[in-house]
Amino acid sequence: MPTHRKPPHLDRQETSDLHLLDLAEIEACKLELQEAQRLLEEARYRYTELFDTVPVGFLTLDDSGHTLEINQAGAAMLGRDRAHMIGKQFIAWLAENERPLFLKYLHKAFHSATKASTELTVKTPRGTLCEMRLESVFTKGAVRPRVCRTVMIDLSSAREAEQASSLASRVIESAAEGIMITDAKNMIVSVNPAFEKSTGYSAQEAVGKSPSLLHSGRHDESFYQEMWANLNKLGQWQGEIWNRHKSGEIYPEWLSISTVRNAKGSVTNYVGIFSDAHTQEHVLERLHYLAYYDGLTGLPNRRLFLDRLSLSISQARRNHQQLAVMFVDLDNFKQINDTMGHRFGDALLMSVTERMKACLRDGDTLARLGGDEFTVILPTIPQTEAAINVAQKIIDSYAIPVYVEGNAVQITASIGISIFPEDGSDADDLLNHADMAMYKIKQTGRNGYWRHGWGDDRKA
């Protein structure tokens, strides 16, 4: 039986068509691959941008605690250069007494099926303590090394804001001045007890009303026009004003009004404070005190300490004299504070403050930077030994137990010393070097002092 075969020219045509089809498919695949690569690159860019711009710290840890990656926000929280942190042990940046807790947390992060979280205290190179919350999720799979993704949130700012808000509320409630807060439409939203006493109107009667509730009729329209012109232009106004008491009595007061704006610059509130001349002076004194002094111990705070240190450096440089800076850190204070409670800890801080003040001259400065961290300025010293003698005097003052609420507490301190001009020419250098020296004595057993620049074989 004869077979039917396709003519040779048809075979060649089909082969050519197939070849063209293959080339078209290959070109289409290339285009798809290029588009996929472009989309992948865009996704990678968006991830990198998001990784570095989120307002929380983000880092990756391996199961031995090494930092494999960290974003800019995380590095900024720790006060360190991002490039120098990669590959380093995260535990190195924690306060010493927090390290066992971190090791337990790391073990839990890699062996728990759920998210692990903890709160830890980090010490920055500047010597400041930051409370951080870590939340980690272990990445499962065969990937090596085993890693967990960790979010790091700075709790210090939130707690400082909470404390500031609480302090502001207490100040407003206890203020001798009448305080009235209105919304952007100038309707009263809040008044304090002094306002109620001064005007005769209760908070319930005042809230929701206009401040015109107090108008005495003694001021003409031009007076209020000038007031609002200053508020709109300068954001504040102050002057004497006559108000009318609920009883009808008219009386003069000094009124200060401030405009409150949000981040976008829009007006959200107006705050008015009524006071007489004597009260006004008292308010200014109190605001000055809160700005420059520690609320617990009454010592200069960080701001006043740095101001005094800069002034002392200028005087020492001009007079070709030496000065000393000391960084004093109480040993194991956090453990005492956590065990006995914050009220007990506050009482202990006030007691040790008095002991340190007794070791210093009238011209010296003792400041509290926060927590259990204190600093000292000895503005003029004849030689380095004078600073060492003061440090030893402070150490000796703690040899006798401190009695708090009937309990005998044995407290010790670690002191770092830096000397101008040998150890630094400005406030930052001297404070950082004193902090580094303090850590040196912590490493060698605590309860002593160390001068910046001493060799490892030097014993305090």
From TrEMBL:
Taxonomic lineage: Bacteria, Pseudomonadati, Pseudomonadota, Betaproteobacteria, Nitrosomonadales
Organism: Sulfurimicrobium lacus
Domain PAS: 43-113, 164-215
Residues making up the signal peptide according to the UniProt record: none
Transmembrane domains' residue ranges: none
SMART domains according to UniProt: GGDEF, PAC, PAS
Tagged with keyword Coiled coil: yes
UniProt protein name: Diguanylate cyclase
Entry coiled-coil feature ranges: 26-53
